[in-house]
Amino acid sequence: MEAFFVSTAIVALAEMGDKTQLLSLVLAARFRRPWPIVLGIFVSTLANHALAGAVGAWVTTVVGPNVLRWGLGLSFIAMAVWMLIPDKLDEDDAAATPRWGVFGTTVVAFFLAEMGDKTQVATVMLAAQYSAYFAVVAGTTLGMMLANAPVVWLGERITRRVPIRAVHVVSAVIFLVLGVLALLHPMG
Fold it and tell me: TM spans, by residue (predicted)?
């Protein structure tokens, strides 16, 4: 259960102010059809994080515990620094062709926007650290939904009230603590 809850919390916090959250806002404003957008976010996140979790689980089979511990520790610390760099949505990210409908456009746009994103990298690292593939993927997917679904339904009202910088600092501190803990404690 720890892997699920930590994964949910980390990704929900990491997603605040992220480009995919901004993409959620753009899609909601453009299409004004929340259910297909939220379903598209869910499907693309589940697919993307399932792949990322598989990479994280695979990494544990090819590197030894010491290398994994140092790699994870340093990666979490790098994520802490990365959290302090704000994301911006490129116009090209939101300009997916609407010929696939609202759902299809959301799935494709979200999947592509998540490639190499903080939450995808976090999913890889969490799957490697916890060796609990399903719990991590379920947690990171739930975290994405907790951060993005309200944006689709409530839009700009949320973005004006949530202190994004504070959320990024809290996320950075969490990643830093996880990095230090990974470096200090040998992996089982």
Answer: 38-60, 67-85, 132-154, 166-185
